[in-house]
Design a protein that fits this description.
Layout: H1 2-14, H2 23-26, E1 40-50, E2 55-68, E3 72-77, H3 95-103, E4 106-114, E5 118-126, E6 135-143, E7 146-155, E8 169-176
Antiparallel strand pairs: 1-2, 1-8, 2-3, 3-4, 4-5, 5-6, 6-7, 7-8
Length: about 180
């Protein structure tokens, strides 16, 4: 129970986490080519939250999107993978319903740069106020129309690091949208 509560707190505080590892995903090699060809729309199929001793896999019943063009990106997903419950009244939500809505969606958009192995994003608009200017580091794995992005680092605009840094990696399993 303690581990579950801790995992949920980390998911909510980081806002971009997932878990797991499977044989088919292991076969996607990490890319070392500058010509990554990441442009387009990618469907988030799964999120894996990877700890040193445990990997949690979250299938996406409610699939998110990562959109990449020549100089910018946008990502949106539900970190729990489940279908979100609608409030009783969209125009008159309770405080509980607002909090639930906030916790069950993640979105950032901004600019990115590529290195030989990494996709590095800098947020210009973020769900969490104050994360504008924050940087996220993802290792790229790509094979055909499938890709993994493994977030291994995050730096806040003030230079600080999240509580999960060094303890958790978040792997996104994506497929190219048409």
């Amino acid at each position: 129970m303690k581990r579950t509560v801790r995992l949920l707190l980390i998911i909510l505080s980081a806002g971009h986490l997932v878990y797991g590892q499977s044989k088919s995903i292991d076969s996607i090699e990490h890319t070392t080519n500058q010509n990554h060809n990441l442009k387009g729309t990618w469907i988030i199929e799964e999120i894996h939250y990877i700890y040193s001793d445990t990997t949690y896999e979250v299938p996406m019943n409610y699939k998110g999107r990562l959109m990449i063009n020549s100089d910018s990106y946008s990502i949106m997903y539900n970190p729990y993978g489940s279908t979100r419950e609608s409030p009783k009244s969209l125009s008159d939500m309770t405080d509980e319903e607002k909090l639930y809505s906030f916790k069950t969606i993640v979105f950032n958009s901004g600019v990115y740069k590529l290195t030989s192995t990494d996709f590095i994003t800098t947020s210009e608009a973020a769900k969490v106020a104050g994360f504008e200017g924050g940087i996220q580091y993802y290792q790229i794995g790509k094979e055909g129309n499938r890709m993994t992005l493994t977030m291994y680092d995050e730096t806040y605009p003030d230079g600080g690091k999240p509580e999960w840094y060094g303890k958790l990696k978040v792997r996104f399993i994506l497929s190219k949208h048409r």
